[in-house]
Amino acid sequence: MKKDDVISIIQLSIYLIGMVYLLVLYRFNFDLSKVDIFIILKWYPASLFITVVFFYLKKSD
């Protein structure tokens, strides 16, 4: 795996967490007092794992 591949995996997983955060903010009418970022960040390892799996599935084609 190249360095560019690792960087793209990390960028995509951060993008996924950001989109989830925006979705949760939308759900609570963008009230920041109701949304805890640490609860969302605990799912970062799962997001990173899913991104790596999809990356390898894409590379195998």
Give the key terms.
61 residues; mainly alpha; transmembrane
Structure notes:
- The chain is an all-alpha fold and 61 residues long.
- The protein has one domain.
- The chain is 75% helix and 0% strand.
- Helix 1 packs across helix 3.
- The longest helix is centred in the N-terminal third of the chain and has 25 residues, at 3-27.
- The radius of gyration is 14 Å and the shape is elongated.
- It starts with a helix and ends with a helix.
Reconstruct the topology from this structure:
Blueprint: H1 3-27, H2 37-41, H3 44-59
Helix pairs in contact: 1-3
Keywords: Membrane, Transmembrane, Transmembrane helix
Protein name: UDP-diphosphatase
Transmembrane segments: 6-25, 37-57
Quaternary structure annotation: single chain
Mean pLDDT: 87
Strand content: under 5%
Written as H for each helix and E for each strand, in order along the chain, the element string is: HHH
Helix content class:
over 70%
Unreliable spans: none
Classification by helices and strands: mainly alpha
Radius of gyration of CA atoms, rounded to a whole number: 14 Å
Q: Please provide the count of β strands.
A: 0
Query: What is the domain tally?
Result: 1
Task: Write a concise synopsis of the structure shown.
Helix content is 75%, strand content 0%.
